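User: quick one, fold this
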Amino acid sequence: MNRRAFLSAAVASAAVMIGGTAKAAVGVTVYKDPNCGCCHAWADALEKAGFSVTVEDVTDLSAIKAKYKVPHAMQGCHTGVVDGKYLEGHVPLDALQRMLRDKPDIDGLAVPGMPSGSLGMGDDPQASYDVFAIPKGAGTPYIYQSVRPKKT
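Assistant:
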């Protein structure tokens, strides 16, 4: 048995022992300004959480936001795309995972602006901001999840 075959067999065996079958990582494409560090930090956090992340540096983010029909009031500093839905701005991991699990009838999730302490912006347990869901079509955004300071 060559080394590659041995490693493949070992990984498959470990996956079966841990939870049954190996699952492919969910792919997320992140469109960001090439000079933005917080966008890169957000993408890194997704990757560390097990997502397969592709980062695309673009100079015209407004074209990306227009393509996915992100409402102007909901825009953030980068746009991610996963499972046909957009993630606008610093969407936290738990909101993303909930969206993938529950499959709500929405175009995407958004954290408008760049809230201090959000994922990629310091990830502060004292952060306070809302994550909005944008219904399909021209629906009115609603609060999908509120992030509030952790009680100690």
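User: anything notable?
Assistant: The longest helix spans residues 3-19.
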